[in-house]
Amino acid sequence: MRLKNLLGIRDLSNEDILQILDTAVLMKPIMETKNKRTNYLLGKILVTLFYEPSTRTRVSFELAAKYLGATTTNISTSSSSVVKGETLIDTARTLRAMGVDIVVMRHPMTAAHRLLGEHLDAVVINAGDGINEHPTQALLDMFTIREKKGAIKGLKVVIAGDILHSRVARSNIWGLTRLGAKVVLAGPSTLIPRGIEKMGVEVFNDIRKAAADADVVMGLRIQKERQKGGLFPSLREYSMLFGIDRDVLEVAKEDVLIMHPGPTNRGVEMPSEIIDSDNSAIEEQVTNGVAVRMAILYMLTREGVS
Ligand code: CP
After folding, report:
1. For the segment 75-121, what is each residue's pLDDT rounded down to a tens digit?
2. 306 CA distance to ligand 1 centroid (A)?
3. What is residue 223's predicted lDDT score, i.e. its pLDDT?
4. Residue to mutate, 52, 57, 223, ligand 1, most ligand atoms under 8 Å from C-beta
5. CA dist., res. 11 & res. 6, Å (int)
6. Is the pLDDT at 149 greater than 90, yes or no?
7. Is 261 in the pocket of ligand 1 (CB under 6 A)?
């Protein structure tokens, strides 16, 4: 890979994206072996540094690193010196002093990762920065779509819900449009950023119109923690007007793939019967997240291959 760090899909070329997806195809069978262990990252130290909650991203990076033979440790900021007032720069210097090789960070501030990288010799991976990007989520989404549909070019992918606060939506728009998908956004106008059409997407406020002939429908979590209030009347009304229900899927292609980055608000973005349906790839997205993160770790630390 040309890049030292993975900060956003925006920085990646088509070739970078395809190389990561192809490498993940080779990594996935390792997860199914008895020992789940290789030596590609032997001797490397990976730290997960999360200033916001996470289950999937943090655990899958930790497992991916372990499957590749790395040593891992987790800093949960709520029980670290961050609560004593340590700055991000001082945390970076502390990790540098301990010889850390890879830092996977989630931070509420856009571009916090660039600041971290300036004070570390380690590889820096963005596990989500504010509402800006979540590149590894988009890569695992693209991997899942390609695995299920055979290709991404020419597909109609609908991303529905809280686009305004969604770093997942932004990273997916960068990646999917670059790989030739037609990306359609659907949601209340208060949750769609103004001018987002400039990113090459079409916007609908009626999800039933947006979903016509869709190959993929991706729901996004309503981020209660980022809502300042007043963006839509109530969760019940959101679910009635914008939820991905049977009526929405009726107008999509019969083999439409249902996706969601998780965690889901069951009954808000979509009902349980759709989350758990045969068309749903939501659990496979989680599995694929480990393979894709193995590929990313391998590619960013390739000089250490044994
Ligand atoms: N999709 C996602 O980022 O999930 P977590 O917040 O659990 O990591």
Report:
1. 988 888 989 999 999 999 999 999 999 999 999 999 899 999 999 99
2. 31
3. 76
4. 57
5. 8
6. yes
7. yes
**Domains by residue range for the chain, with CATH:** 9-131+287-300 (3.40.50.1370), 135-281 (3.40.50.1370)
Check if 57 has its Cβ closer than 6 Å to any atom of ligand 1: yes
Q: Which tokens hold the place of 14?
A: 């088509």
Ligand 1 midpoint to CA 53 (Å): 8
| Phi and psi at residue 27, to the nearest 5° | -80, -35
Calculate how far, in angstroms, residue 215's C-alpha sits from the geometric centre of ligand 1. 24
Q: Do the beta carbons of residue 184 and residue 201 sit within 8 Å?
A: yes
The residue whose CA has the least distance to atom 6 of ligand 1 is 54
Which residues are within 8 A (CB) of 126 and not within 5 positions of it... i.e. 6 or more apart?
A: 5, 6, 7, 8, 105, 113, 133, 134, 135, 136
**CB of 126 sitting under 6 A from ligand 1:** no
Confidence band for 305, pLDDT divided at 50, 70 and 90: very low
Predicted local confidence at residue 228, as pLDDT? 65
Q: Identify the CA nearest to 172 among candidates 298, 88, 66, 261.
A: 261
Q: Read off the pTM.
A: 0.95
Q: In angstroms, what is the span from residue 57 Cα to ligand 1's centroid?
A: 5
Q: Measuring from atom 5 of ligand 1, which residue has the nearest CA?
A: 54
Dump pLDDT digits (tens) for 173-199: 999 999 999 999 999 999 999 999 999
Strands of the 182-186 sheet, one edge to the other? 202-204, 182-186, 156-160, 216-219, 257-259
- Which residues lie below 8 Å from residue 261, measured CB to CB, with a gap of 6+? 56, 134, 137, 141, 168, 218, 220, 221, 285
